[in-house]
Amino acid sequence: MTFAARHIGPDPDEQDQMLKLIGYGSMEQLMDAAIPEVIRWHGRLDLPEAASEEETIAELRAIAARNTVATSMIGLGYYGTFTPAVIRRNVLENPAWYTAYTPYQPEISQGRLEALLNFQTMVTDLTGLTTANASMLDEGTAAAEAMTLARRASKSKSSVYVVDADTLPQTLSVLRTRAEPLGIEVRLVDLDAGQALPEEFFGLHLQYPGASGAVRDHSALVAAAHAGGALVTVAADLLALTLLRAPGEIGADIAAGTTQRFGVPLAFGGPHAGYLAVRSGLERSLPGRLVGVSKDADGAPAYRLALQTREQHIRREKATSNICTAQVLLAVMASMYAVYHGPEGLRAIARRTHERAAAIAAGLDAAGVRVAHAEFFDTVTAVVPGRADAVVAAAAAAGVDLWRVDADRVSVACDETTTEAHVAAVLSAFGVAPVASVVSAIPASLRRESDFLTHPVFRTHHSETGMLRYLRRLSDRDYALDRGMIPLGSCTMKLNATTEMEPVTWPEFADIHPFAPASQTAGYEALVAQLEAWLAELTGYDAVSVQPNAGSQGELAGLLAIRGYHRARGQAHRDVCLIPSSAHGTNAASAVMAGMRVAVVACDADGNVDAADLDRKIEAHRDDLAAIMVTYPSTHGVYETGIADLCAKVHDAGGQVYVDGANLNALVGFAKPGRFGADVSHLNLHKTFCIPHGGGGPGVGPVAVRAHLAEFLPGDPLSASGEHAVSAAAHGSAGILPISWAYLRMMGPEGLAAATSVAVLSANYVAARLREHYPVLYAGNDGLVAHECILDLRPLTKATGISVDDVAKRLIDYGFHAPTMSFPVAGTLMVEPTESEDLAELDRFCAAMIAIRSEIDAVAAGRWPRDDNPLVNAPHTASSVAADEWSHAYPRSVAAYPDGVDRTAKYWSPVRRIDGAYGDRNLVCACPPPEAFED
Ligand SMILES: *Cc1c(COP(=O)(O)O)cnc(C)c1O
Q1: Ligand 1 centroid to 102 CA: how many Å?
Q2: What distance in Å separates the CA atoms of residue 202 and residue 388, rounded to the nearest whole number?
Q3: What are the tens digits of pLDDT across the range 400-421?
Q4: For the chain, what percentages of helix, strand and coil (3-state, to nearest 5) are there?
Q5: Which ligand 1 atom is nearest residue 325's CA?
Q6: How big is the CA angle at 575 (ends 572 and 579), to the nearest 5 degrees?
Q7: With 60 as the cut, is the pLDDT of residue 309 above it?
Q8: For atom 14 of ligand 1, which residue has the closest CA?
Q9: How far is CA 822 from CA 488, 595, 613, 794, in A?
Q10: Domains parsed from the chain with CATH numbers
């Protein structure tokens, strides 16, 4: 069997049955009818023929072999770490964790929500602040979010953001990218050299310890900044904080950074979970997802995303951030690393790391090599006038990578993997010998006195048996693709094949530092170049960058490219971005972050962009039009025929066309945005190209452009052109690119086109089967939808009071994850089956939806009261149906085992319906004490 036949759920016989039901004789007929000819591309993709799973693994082995795994002592925000094997196998390599979706349906996400709450608790404890969110994309973007948060919260009118010169270079690069369009002036100040703070500024960014390794007492600077009304961000290393005074204890308002060294592989720069924490009073300005504690219908404590409405809509044009997909899987790993080691274990790792660094400093010092800073945690900067290259080369010859700061300085970073042998090798590269006596270089005034990770969860699961069972207990609470279909419209929850996943943890991919010398990364460079070329072929664009580490970041990169283009042509005044009212929330948010003004274009009754309103808006903004941002197929799941016209009109007015490519699963092999008129798109590799959602991240959001925009693509954050970097690492989340590479390699041109056809077939099959039970909103040619369909619940809600929420929660009783709720249309469900679900699973879903319709009818007919029926009481837990008292209007069997549910394979929701409003009023975002869970 080919891989494509494994990836695509329905087999040819099933496809024929499905075609028959929707009234088409063949797949060609269906696709010819569904896809408007104006966008249709009839060629054959210029990609290699499909390879088998075994051949693909062999090819990836060969690519991986071109990378060299060295002992990396480069540091600069990326450190060697031992991923505990129990976490690697049972989280990173476990589909129960990696195939889950973002926890918007909290009842079926209690496991990952608990893990994320542990993450938030870990970050708040270590930073000494009060509230942390559930992960950021990396340290650079977390620092950028901290900068804009400071701007919003500061009373100062100044637009100056002061950045300490001892900041990580990649962070500085991302800060500059994000500051410029917002009119923020990043001012680099060498605080160490005694340069003074400016008169006025709204925020101050400090690195702790500094990029050079120096540990400094920042309290006086913090006080000075506060005196002028500025907020202070401390970018802190969490391992160092086990020994050093916490940012909150020196008065910082915000802490930002990465959790990579808590057991997450280097992976050439990502994916890793960034973190962001704030002091009390700033929690409601915190961007990103925040897990909070609330209660369920029985009053039991339950977790859910707090302030969720705010997050889901990303506040549109009032947006303060565009972050959507974050780094959940990696945050889970980092939190479990803390759970497994506990506070004592972390302190021991930190002490050992520090001792190695101190041993290097002592050896250098004894031999008369000057050490730049007397006080440090893990990184020593040595001053070797004119000899830096020679030292780095000598270390490299011994298999150790050091960092060349400049011709006269070399820095050496230690981590938990550093051994005495590494210390000896490093010293030998400097031409000196180890010494016996080593003293601590942690300044007494900055020693941490306060305790941390005092919650029992960090003091319980320290044996491997305990850890294994804790992980299993949490993952058992969650519904992921390993249990059944997740028909989330716009999210493309398709198969994440095991063969695609396997290379991710190979050392040749996992253990490469993002700043490793080019001679060690030829495999990665080849993989990235090939993947970018394939994506360009698939989309019809001329150049692609995989640097953006989520769709939102791809959007920002694409809009910045448009901005750069207009500026380069002397048209800097073009700053209006047209966005249809149905757009995904990130679109408008990204436009705001790119310094654009948003003008909303209405949609017509068919869900298409309203042509008359488009004309009006173009006319109104003819002189300052920068771009239009449209999703194709539309967010309504329809192939709009007006797209080519739309592109032409916007171009005529001097604007650029951005096509949001998150829905590319409906186009691959059949249409190319770069050919039907668009100038730039982002793709979501975590949707169309099989990177698993990881419970809400990681993702990759490549940006693809036509030739005229190529020079404005994101640059290497370490190079001189780093002004354009949108992520901290040149290739963003490089470590998960082998997944998409493997998918394309195994599918080949025919397989990819077949996947698109079956995705469209399945959506139309579901629409056809459910149409008589729920109206299907919007359709294109011939009454066909694209790869998803919208079921309208509003008439039923009006008649019975049963809401989309009730249907979504009742689906849990039937063993399903709900479709996308109330996006893009309030009161509806959007279903995207993808090509990977076989006919039996599609039918099981349709049967559940039809059974739910008859339950709604029973409410309408008055057989069940409106306030006591299986819909409004859903989901039902085992303990609620096993209760000694049962006073409901329907029997227990209907609650627990409704029509068609297999009694031997029942998924039980661990909690009943969660009260979100209660949690928002009583915001609790750290682990509650164990007593909270007592009956
Ligand atoms: C998923 C999605 C996005 C955002 O992607 P993230 O990776 O979550 O940032 C943007 N637009 C559309 C249409 C999407 O479906």
Answers
A1: 12
A2: 38
A3: 999 999 999 999 999 999 999 9
A4: 45, 15, 45
A5: 8
A6: 155
A7: no
A8: 662
A9: 11, 29, 24, 10
A10: 343-446 (3.90.1150.10), 504-735 (3.40.640.10)
